[in-house]
Design brief:
Aspartate Aminotransferase, domain 1; binds pyridoxal-5'-phosphate; single chain
Length: 401
């Protein structure tokens, strides 16, 4: 039995009395993560890969230990395929610059989806502008699911790159990534999967999935901000030039030129977010102890409960697929009440709710709304937090009547 009350004891923030329904934005962190970061800062703070003294060795070892933990977490073949970045955004930009500038040519097609987060749209728009490529977006159907018929038609045009999310942060739609990656690879495309909402809630096996790149953020999976991951297939990473130049990513530097470090350090220029990366390792351990299967089950239970509770409210529209086809994210709108007003009223009840475009403006345009309210759940979410949200919604309806 998954014991959510016991899990919550690891998260000191809940002692403040908040109902936290914004985990798709950023998750909370358990003591195991914050104390791992604090331990680094207080006991062995030093730079990595450079110094010969003991505490620097410990910092290097623990930093590199996270790489192995992440490798196992996503089942990559080698730690050489695990690049530390600041998060999903930086990981995707790394690919757009280091792979895209060299490989995407004038007239090439890039296939994205209307469901995607800005960080999986804007870097490709910048690349398309620079290299003269064109972009097509896969649309959604009335349930908020990607139109697979259209996706297949676009693949017939042999795109150079296909990029999509595993799970939509705005609607919670779980995309059929296994099938989509297979089809895109068969069409000859390079494939990037944005796992920002996938890795924390669904998990991933990158080898089974067969994608070329997979990006995710530590702060959405109980880890610190500033630590995220780019997985890249080794063969591709070997061929790519560095993204940024500077310290640590080199073998030798002479006035005539530079030779680059081996993978994965070729892509890790400058001093990294050492404590945060160590904290990410602690987050991966914590998720491992909870078990991804248990996390999924718990989220499904909460999502079904919330979906029903919200659907019962008159004047409330839920966007996106039924609970069986979505992750722990529910976007909704209330007749006559702006999402920001609802979020403000909820805040008075210590209910943390997101309102806005969720960095998915093309999707909001497609849905014909300026914004939605969004409740999102994670390992620590309890039903009474959903009940408190329902209370805030009813209060908002009373005020605006
Ligand atoms: C699906 C998706 N992709 C990308 C991102 C960007 O992540 P980050 O801001 O951590 O780089 C987010 C964050 O909300 C997201 O939900």
């Amino acid at each position: 039995m998954y014991d959510v009350a016991a899990v919550r004891k690891d998260f000191p923030i809940f002692e403040t009395g908040i109902a936290y329904l914004d985990s798709a934005n950023t998750s909370q962190r358990p003591r195991q993560v914050t104390s791992a970061v604090l331990d680094y800062w207080e006991r062995y703070n030093s730079n990595i890969h450079r110094a010969a003294y003991k505490i620097a060795e410990e910092a290097t070892d623990r930093y590199e230990a996270t790489r192995e933990k992440v490798r196992a977490f996503i089942n990559a073949a080698s730690t050489k395929e695990i690049i530390n970045t600041r998060g999903t955004t930086e990981a995707i930009n790394l690919v757009a610059y280091a792979w895209g500038r060299a490989n995407v040519r004038a007239g090439d097609l890039i296939v994205l989806t209307i469901l995607d987060h800005h960080s999986n749209i804007v870097p490709w728009q910048i690349l398309a502008e620079a290299n003269g490529a064109r972009i097509e977006y896969v649309d959604i159907d009335e349930r908020g699911e990607l139109r697979q018929d259209q996706f297949r038609e676009l693949l017939e045009q042999q795109p150079r790159l296909v990029a999509f999310s595993q799970v939509s942060n705005a609607l919670g739609t779980i995309n059929p990534v296994d099938d989509m990656v297979k089809r895109a690879k068969a069409a000859g495309a390079t494939v990037l999967v944005d796992g920002a909402q996938g890795a924390p809630h669904q998990g991933v096996d990158v080898r089974a999935l067969g994608c070329d790149f997979y990006a995710f953020s530590g702060h959405k999976m109980l880890g610190p901000t500033g630590a995220g991951i780019l997985y890249g297939r080794r063969e591709l990473l070997e061929q790519m030039d560095p993204f940024m130049g500077g310290g640590d990513m080199i073998k030798t530097v002479r006035v005539e030129g530079t030779t680059y470090h081996d993978l994965p350090w070729k892509f890790e220029a400058g001093t990294q977010a050492i404590g945060e990366v160590i904290g990410l390792g602690a987050a991966v351990d914590y998720i491992g102890e909870l078990g991804m299967e248990n996390i999924r089950e718990h989220e499904t239970e909460i999502t079904e409960y919330a979906y029903e509770a919200l659907s019962d409210i008159e004047g409330l529209t839920v966007y996106g697929p039924p609970p069986s086809r979505r992750a722990g994210v529910i976007s909704f709108a209330l007749d006559g009440i702006h999402p920001h007003d609802l979020a403000t009223i909820a805040d008075r009840d210590q209910v943390c709710l997101r309102a806005g475009h969720h960095c998915a403006m093309p999707l909001m345009t497609r849905l014909g709304v300026p914004a939605t309210a969004r409740a999102s759940f994670y390992v620590y979410t309890q039903k009474d937090e959903v009940d408190r949200l329902v209370g805030s919604i009813k209060e908002a309806q009373r005020i605006f009547k």
